[in-house]
Amino acid sequence: MIANAEALLKPLTIKGLTIRNRVMSTSHAPGYGKDGKPQERYQLYHMEKAKGGIGLTMFGGSSSVAIDSPAAPWNQISVTDDSVIPYFQQFAERVHAHGAKLMIQLTHMGRRTKWDTENWLPTLSASVRREPASRTIPRAMDKHDIRRVVKAFADAARRCKEGGLDGCEISAAHGHLVDQFWSPSVNQRTDEYGGSLENRMRFGKEVLTAMREATGDDYVIGMRMSGDELIADGLNHEDCVAIATEYARAGLVDFLNVVGGQARDEMSHALSLPNMSFPVAPFLYLPSAIKREVDVAVFHAQRVTDLATGARAVAEGHVDMIAMTRAHIADPHLVKKLMEGRDDDIRQCVGAGYCIDRIYVGGDALCLQNAATGREATMPHVIPKAEVARKVVVVGAGPAGLEAARVCAERGHSVVLFEKEAVVGGQVNIAAKATWREALSGIPRWLYGQVQKKGVDIRLGRAATPEDIAAEAPDVVIMATGGVPNLGHAKGHEHAVSTWDILTGRVEPTGSVLLFDEIGGHNAASTAEALAKKGCLVEMVTHDVQIAQEVGTTNKPVHLRELYKLGVVMTPNTELIEIYPEGNRLIAALRNTMTEAEEERVVDRVVVDYGTLPVDALFEALRGASVNDGETDLDALIEGRAPRWTGQKGFALYRVGDAWTGRNIHAALYDSLRLCKDL
Ligand SMILES: Cc1cc2nc3c(=O)[nH]c(=O)nc-3n(C[C@H](O)[C@H](O)[C@H](O)COP(=O)(O)O)c2cc1C
Ligand code: SF4
Predict the structure, then answer these.
(1) Is 327 a pocket residue for ligand 2 (Cβ < 6 Å)?
(2) pLDDT value at residue 2
């Protein structure tokens, strides 16, 4: 067991509420709300964490208290009327049945939302200051607005109590309305709500006072706040300590949930939700400093990805509870595994940020490496045994193949896994070589550990042949042979090399490099960074409107920061039309996609990223001998039942991951999980 585990497993009592241990998940908005309510999908997602032993799970990130803070933009929860109460009651019953406590976050987003949705009302703030992230220009609140919003918070708190929730917090972090009043970066008022820190704290105090009056003194109410906004014109650490001390002293809060950052724009957003480029627990010093000054419980979440770090944070007295929010998205059974002495089985969050990045483009939160999260109604976190044990051959030990082998082995099937390389991991090994993305290697590492434990017959360094497969007399063959780089369709593309050639070190360019990116993902941006770090002069060209267009909110700023620092030239709206040699150099002909103007570059290397093409020779060779001619039963896959050939004499042949078509790690794992859970 990890050091200090006993500190994590000790109960915590706040007012009359006893939480069974010190591990929690902070409120987040996963985009699972339906009609503004936490319905089945939302409830099952949190219930899984309760089953997995968590002490406290907080749901409803940014739940709306008022009609001018719309819940619609990110499928959030509206607590603006009593119709939500029965959903809260059902939710609380589900979570309580498994011994965990349940709280919600209430907020008014102020300027940090959209006006062109739901009720089409103007956004509000302390002052007229546009927020770059949400792109809205708010209206400065008048006294009627202040009274109305204060009452709305109070009514929402009453609904939480009536709904059987164990408590609630207000969000005064990440640039929501309460901290918009606090922060000099937003609040320019000259009335009693602006100017001195005392005045700027007034609105938040009125909110909490009204919530207390609505719920009574015994109800647990807390506040999420920043310990330092980490922006030049914002609240500094001393301001935040002063706010925390004052609110705690006044008896307005029972806990403080402290983070770092403010999230008003791209870079500050990336700081608030640190990805794998950050060290573990980068902002633990902030709650720790506040805890020294207050006598209420202090919580914290920010890239605490492993229980040992969480246990140290509690044992050393930096916090009273440690939140491992994305860590629970990656593995909702963390605490149970710790208690059962199975900490090796914990699937650790790698900080890819896929979960959070999806919600900012209107998607739902999904984990890059755990396809069951958020799909609890259809995808199991614990794989059930099959009624009939089968013989399964999996070819390829990248993420898709490892997941297929893992799930089939959990089902009780006898599994042989072939991999032509000497190591498992496939393309992830290449991506993990890139600068700050090393942590990706945690994904195949965990899967490999699991398939070894489950007794999969792993044959590394063996490129499977049809004869090898026939010798196993399988019932099912799963092709997870991955892809190879596509060099694209520009004339003379044979003169280009791929991003893989660079990242693996097969090609080591010097001098000037033109890198053309048709995908807009991590791969090209990482390659440009790696090339520039090796001293190349790099121009990154894309036909998208910006570099790394596909990369999400918490990752793109990190790429861009590095590329700017390294002097990489970034040229959007431009396509590569031809490459041809001239002497010992190359000419890259480019065309602007807006003006159609053409120009040329003389460079030492052209590197391209057009994604991958499936490796399918073995699949095609086996197709004719299979009972299904290699066809996937799409209806069965989507409906969650066994493919129609299951049980027929002979073998059924399937393909998963990039061998099916080039996508991402999540898609590869989901292909395998949903196919194999029904085999
Ligand atoms: C999908 C997603 C949505 C989030 N939405 C909110 C939110 O609405 N309100 C909030 O205070 N924090 C939100 N967060 C931040 C988390 O509560 C937490 O602070 C963050 O994930 C850092 O903690 P971790 O490293 O343990 O995940 C969100 C996080 C994720 C992953
Ligand atoms: S997507 Fe990445 S950051 Fe999010 S939970 Fe999964 S591993 Fe962690």
Answers:
(1) no
(2) 87
> What is the pLDDT at residue 670?
98
* 245-254 confidence digits (pLDDT tens): 999 999 999 9
Distance 85 CA to ligand 2 centre (A): 31
State the Cα–Cα distance between residues 61 and 360, nearest whole angstrom: 14
Residue-level pLDDT at 426: 95
CA 374 to chain CA centroid, nearest Å: 12
Q: Is the pTM of this model over 0.85?
A: yes
The pick from 273, 324, 328 for probing ligand 1's pocket by mutation, whose C-beta has the most ligand atoms within 8 angstroms, reads: 273
DSSP letters along 7-74, please?
HHTS-EEETTEEESSSEEE-----S--BTTB--HHHHHHHHHHHHTT-SEEEEEEEEE-STTS-SGGG
Element (H, E) at 144: helix 143-162
Provide DSSP, 551-612.
S-TTTHHHHHHHHHHTT-EEE-SEEEEEEEEETTEEEEEEEETTT--EEEEEESEEEEE--E
Looking at the CA of 669, name the nearest ligand.
2
CA 500 – CA 497 distance, rounded (Å): 8
pLDDT for 73 equals 85
CA distance 654 to 562: 41
Please report which confidence band the pLDDT of residue 132 belongs to, taking 50, 70 and 90 as the band edges.
Answer: very high
74 band by pLDDT with thresholds 50, 70 and 90: confident
> Under a CB-based contact definition with an 8 Å cutoff, are residues 324 and 334 in contact?
yes
Measured in Å, residue 153 CA sits from the centre of ligand 1 at: 21
**Ligand 1 pocket, mutate which of 23, 25, 28, 275 (most atoms under 8 A from CB):** 28
CA 331 to ligand 2 center in whole angstroms: 10
Distance between CA atoms of residues 601 and 500, nearest Å: 23
